[in-house]
Amino acid sequence: MSFPSSLLTYVFFFDLVNKDFCEVDRIFCFQTFYNVIINELTSTAETRHGINPSTEEALPPVPLSTQEDVDKAVAAAQAAYPAWRDLTYDERAKYILRYADAIEANLAGIQDILMKEAGKPVQNATQELGFALMHLRQTAGLRLPEDVVEDSEERTATVRYVPIGVGVGIVPWNYPALLGLGKLDAAVLTGNTYIWKPSPYAPYTALKLGELAAKIFPPGVVQVLSGDESLGPLFTAHPSIGKISFTGSSATGKKVMAACAKTLKRVTLELGGNDASIVCDDVDVKQVVQKIGPFSFLHAGQICMEIKRLYVHEKIYDEFLAAMVEVVKTFKVGGAGDAEAFLGPVQNSMQYEKVQDMFSEISKQNWKVALGGDVCSTGKEKGYFFPPTIIDNPPENSRIVVEEPFGPIMPVLKWKDEEDVIRRANNTDMGLGASVWSSDVERAKKIATRLEAGSVWVNSHFELSPSVPFGGHKWSGIGMDWGIVGMKGWCNTQSMWVRKKF
């Protein structure tokens, strides 16, 4: 079902409580964007606008939130919290499922916004929203039961997980729908109220998802505020917010943690990565490169858990590199809405400059280029595009190995000794993800268990599930999102003692 951009549409959603269809009484327009505070669409005195990274054209204006807006939203979230907390898990889950149905009913319009603001080709935007819907529906089925530690004739001791109160999700620009909804569902399911703060570079999808949430959830349970870089500190400093869940760079994550320390807020930090992938000498090269190639360049390298350093055994290195180049050559570069494109643009001008600086190191450091390298070779006159680029065995201390480029450029490196490659893979401040590839699964598992990362894969990479937590070690974060572990991050642990005889 598609919605012409010139038309307004009605939203229909399935009411899981009454088992019939309900018509939302307000027209849902995909061309105007507002904050969502107390289930009302509100504007601000000043506005700003994002940029379409495929065309460099201005997108529509969005609110520029102030301290007054933050205070109003937090007060509403506080007021809504007691009644929302006191609902059962099953009752809160019904709201989440209704919300998923409402999103699905408006999927075409939401996907169009996502492609324009994030520069996502069709297949990438479709995958993100499809996974986000699955995330909402599967998370709605999870529960945090009480743990009975002791149950004797005299007493019981129980461990409970109780909601924190008002929570804020600070969401990045690379996966604005999935990462925002992946915080929302766990937060509200466990009984918290949730304020969504999208990235200044990608606020549009979040604002429309917030507008839909206002049709489903009670006032104050889910709210969305957009703004510039000054908005995040207003949330981290607010004394009535109990939890910040942040996804973004390690540098900003440290600032978030320091700011939250002043009011002892709970924090979850899912930060940058520099994922190593180790390829053993016994793999089927042609088969493995078909998987590793996409895992290295999906969304133009703008995924924290993507392969960033590829270590290939020297016995198969030349064969592997040649095969890898042939696979990556087929990845078409194209902008938002391109049904055939695999690589879209880098999402914003700030990141474009950072990636361009990394590309400039090719000539400065005399790196050997196996594919790409020429920034101007994409044939695009407008947009923040780069060609997929592979660097052939650069020195281990090179910037391309040490730093996370967050763009479509990656090193392929040789290894010979197993102990040495494990040391090299772990020799980073980051610890988000890592993978091992081998026909000998037991051998691969032994290597994988020694890798210092929050997610470790054998014969795969970037494999995710709504039921499995993800997060990082070292500078890649604190705590985890998703699954039961992620839900516990939205709760305080409480010990309850009941004396039966006294």
Number of DSSP helical runs? 15
Strand content: 15-25%
User: Could you tell me the mean pLDDT?
Assistant: 93
| Strand numbers in spatial order across the main sheet | 16-17-18-15-14-19-20
N-to-C span: 65 Å
Structural class: alpha/beta
What percentage of residues falls in helices of 4 or more residues? 25-40%
Q: Would you tell me which CATH topology of the largest domain applies?
A: Aldehyde Dehydrogenase, Chain A, domain 1
Compute the number of structural domains.
2
Give a brief outline of the structure.
With 502 residues, this protein is α/β, with parallel strands linked by helices.
Describe this structure in words.
The chain has 502 residues and is of the alpha/beta class. The chain has two domains: 12-51 and 59-271 and 478-493, Aldehyde Dehydrogenase, Chain A, domain 1 (3-Layer(aba) Sandwich); 275-465, Aldehyde Dehydrogenase, Chain A, domain 2 (3-Layer(aba) Sandwich). The chain contains 15 helices and 22 strands. It has helices at residues 67-85, 89-105, 107-118, 122-139, 176-189, 204-216, 231-237, 250-261, 285-297, 317-329, 349-364, 399-402, 418-426, 441-448, 483-488; strands spanning 12-15, 20-23, 35-37, 40-42, 47-52, 57-63, 147-151, 155-163, 166-170, 193-197, 222-224, 243-247, 266-270, 275-279, 307-313, 369-371, 389-392, 409-415, 433-437, 455-458, 477-478, 491-499. The strands form six sheets. Strands 16-17-18-15-14-19-20 form a seven-stranded mixed sheet, sandwiched between helices. Helix 2 packs antiparallel against helix 4 (122-139) and helix 4 runs parallel beside helix 5. The radius of gyration is 24 Å and the shape is globular. Residues 1-27 have low confidence and may be disordered.
